[in-house]
Amino acid sequence: MKLKLINSISVLLLLTILICCDRDNSQSQKSGSDSSKDAIFPKGELGPATNFTGNAYNFGLVADDSIYNTLVGNVYFEINARSNWHLHPSGQILIVLDGEGYHQLEGQPRHTMKKGEVIKVPANTRHWHGATEYNSLTQMYILPKTENGFVTWMEPVTDEQYNPTTKTNGNY
Amino acid sequence: MKLKLINSISVLLLLTILICCDRDNSQSQKSGSDSSKDAIFPKGELGPATNFTGNAYNFGLVADDSIYNTLVGNVYFEINARSNWHLHPSGQILIVLDGEGYHQLEGQPRHTMKKGEVIKVPANTRHWHGATEYNSLTQMYILPKTENGFVTWMEPVTDEQYNPTTKTNGNY
Q1: From A5, A38, A142, residue closest to B142, measured CB to CB
Q2: ipTM of the complex
Q3: Most buried residue, A60, A74, A81, B118, by CB count within 10 Å?
């Protein structure tokens, strides 16, 4: 009888702990995955496959006009998504609002960008940017002096260019 | 003996529940109050009392140069803090990254700004911006065409201008 009682209470204890742990986990998962609730801007429109590898969404913030001559917007890159190679006639300012990304100026090493980082892209310089293979990227862009034009799109960034540390091992 | 055993186990159960509940609470408090952990940019430097009422902190993101002719930064306004009246020779783009604020162009009603909102301030137009009396404001600014200058600072925004709905009732 005494043994039965101890067994019942042990099961009860175990259940209580399990329920508590489950509550903790579901809370952590919520705060970790539901990032859209905290997003500053709407996701925007899917960028065309001719200019992006993977899914990148553009949300326009300031349309070009002859008063500011400045174009501003936000791009949300899903994990592994990146732009093609491209250039801007007056350069570009990139500001990382969330997540983590890569940026590369042609001829220089790939640079990993963190939340809060600002990148000044020189005029007429081939470059690409995108999310990492581990994290999405939310990135604001500013195009100054738009009287000179916006962007010239070029060829896609290959897997080897995107992730030069990944070695392919042939058939084995 | 049986009663003693039940008592001990009851105390153990109660303790387990209390510890679990406490973990839950401390987690909620963390995610609710520690907003500086989620801030995109550092708080920056306190703006001078000659240009601001209350505490407003500026963090420069892009310094002016002759390549972009664009100045970019972030201001964190504490609750009730606001700029003086001022104007920009080429206008200003304001982008609300967090919290809630007020913006007013002279001669127009005060406008309440929400997270994600973009405000285009015309050139040479007297205006002010700041947090509300309930919420702080994190606000990015872009000054285009800086070859024309940055800002002309003017007189403080009075309490009546800041909050025209607050009525003073004299002595009673």
Answers
A1: A142
A2: 0.77
A3: A74
